[in-house]
Amino acid sequence: MSDAASKDEVVDVLIAGAGPAGLALGGELGRAGVRALVLEREPEPPGFCRGFNLNARSLELLDRRGLAARFLAEGPTAQTTVFVGASRLDLAAMRTKHPYALGIPQTRVEELLAEWAVGLGARLVRGRRLTGLRQDGDGVTVEVDGADGPSIVRCRWLVGCDGGRSTVRKAAGIGFPGTPARKFTLLGDVVLADPSAVSFGPNTGPGGRSVFAIPRPGYVRLVTADPAPPADPHEPVPLGSFQRAIDAALGHRAEIAEALWLTRFGDAARLAEQFRAGRVLLAGDAAHIHPPAGAIGVNAAIDDAVNLGWKLALVVRGQAPDTLLDTYHDERHAAGKRLLRNTRAQAVLAQANGDDDRLAPLRDLLSELAESADTAGPLAEAITGVGTRYPASGDPGHPWAGRMVPDIPLGQDGEDGLTALLTRRAGGALLLNGAADSQALSTAARPWADRVTTAHTHPHALERARAILVRPDGHAAWIGAPSTPVDAAPEELRETLARWFGRPAATL
C-alpha cells in the first residue's frame, strides 16, 4: 500500500498524516486528477482503535463518493445514541438519507480510506515524519526524516493532518488558542477476569463516580475519570493505576487479566487561528481538538477533507485562483467553532452526573429536548453536523440553501440520481427543472462544462426552485429563486460559477 519516497522530490500536494483527514483528502484529490503524497510518521498502522463511530454527516459525504455502502457493510447502525445523562438522542428524526450512527472501528475506517486514496493515485509512505518547513511564493520546502535518513520534499501545497500536536501547525506559526485540559479521563481496552464484574453502559459506584463500559469482540472498553493525573498528561498509563481507578469508581474489584491499550485524554478545546497560512493548510485534529463527546473527531476530519479537497484540486489544476482556499478557512473555521461549542457543552453537562449538581436542571432540560419529537431532529442535526449550511447565493429562504442537497432523481424517468452523478464526476452539478429559462441557464453554464454537469429533474423535484447549483461536496451553492427575473438569473448563475469553480474554460 506504500512505496518508498525518493531522497529529494517535487510533488503538487504533500499531506502530513495518514489519519482519517489525510487519507480522505488524498482520495478527494485523486478523484479530481491530483496525485498527493501522504507521509505518515508511524511505520505501521496503530494496534489500537480510538473510536467506533461514523455519523450521518460522514455517511452523507461518503455517499456522494460512492463509498457509503462499503462502510455500512462493516458494522451495525443505531438510530439513537447516548447524549447527556441517561438520555438518548433520536437520530431517526434527522433530515438525512442516513438517520443513524454506524458502529465501525476507526482502524477499519482508515483502512478503507487508504484503499480508496491509493486506488485513485495517492502515494502513502509510512515511517517518514516532517521535521521542518520553509514556504515561499511558489511552494513549500519540507524537511523529512525517517529510518533511511533525512530528505527534502518540495511541494506546491502542504496540508497538515498530523494531529493535535501538529508539527505543521507549529512550524507554520499558526496559533492554537482555546482552553487547556482541566479534567482528564482514563480509557482502557482490557480483558476482564470476570466479564460480569462490569455491566454495559454506566456503572455508578457508592461514591458517585462511574465507569462506562462498552463491550467489544474479545474485550471491553472501560472509561472513567482520572483521579490523579500526572504533571505530564502524555505519560503512559500504568496498569496498576488504571486498575485502582476502576476499582475505586466501582466500589468493588473488577480484575483486569490483560490490558490491550491504556490511554488518558483531557477536555482541552482549541481551534487554529487560521486553517490556511499561505501555502500551508490544516485539517482534522491539527486544526481543532475538543472533548470526545459524541465521538465526533473522525467525522469532523472527513468533513474538513471533503471541503478542502475539491477546492485545492481546482487551484492545483490552475482552474481557480488560490483565493478559493480562503473559503475553506471561512467555512470550516466556523464549523470548528460550532464543534467546540457542542462538545464542550456536552462535557460540562456530564459533570451533572458527578460533582456538580447545579447542572442537573440543565441536563434534564436537554435530555427532554433530545427525546421530544418536536426538537430531537434539529438538536441531532446540530450535534452531528447534518444541519451544516455553507454560504449560498440566490434564494436564502429555500430549505436547501447552503445545505446538502438530497439525492433527488434526475432525468425524465428518474433513472439516475444526484448522488450517482456526483460519484461519477469529480465536479459539481447544475440541476434544472424545465422552467422557462432553463435553456438560458444551461447556456450560461456551458463554459464550466468541464467542472459542472448539467442535469434535468422532474418539475417539482427542486422544492419550488427553478434551478440549483450543487458543489462537488453536495452542498447547494446557488438557488434559482422563482421571483428572480428571467434575464437576471443567468448572470446570477455565472457569478456563482466563477466564485466556486474558477474561470470559465474560454478564458483559460
Mean pLDDT level:
92
How far apart the termini lie comes to: 36 Å
Can you summarize the main beta sheet?
A: 8 strands, mixed
The tally of beta strands, per DSSP, is 27
Low-confidence stretches: 1-6
Strand content: 25-35%
Q: Helicity range of the residues?
A: 25-40%
Secondary structure tally, helices: 13
Any idea what the radius of gyration is?
24 Å
Given helix and strand content, the structural type is alpha+beta
Shape descriptor: globular
Written overview of the protein:
With 508 residues, this protein is α+β, with helices and mostly antiparallel strands. 30% of the residues lie in helices and 25% in strands. The chain has 13 helices and 27 strands. The chain has helices at residues 20-31, 56-63, 68-72, 106-119, 167-171, 239-250, 297-316, 324-350, 360-371, 376-384, 418-424, 438-445, 489-501; strands at 8-16, 36-40, 77-78, 80-82, 88-90, 101-102, 123-126, 128-135, 140-146, 151-160, 178-179, 184-192, 201-204, 210-216, 219-225, 256-266, 269-271, 276-277, 280-282, 288-289, 393-394, 409-410, 416-417, 428-432, 452-456, 467-470, 476-480. The strands form seven sheets. Strands 1, 2, 7, 8, 9, 10, 18 and 19 form an eight-stranded mixed β-sheet that branches. It has a five-stranded antiparallel β-sheet with strand order 13-14-15-12-16, covered by helices on one side. Strands 21-27-26-24-25 form a five-stranded mixed β-sheet, sandwiched between helices.
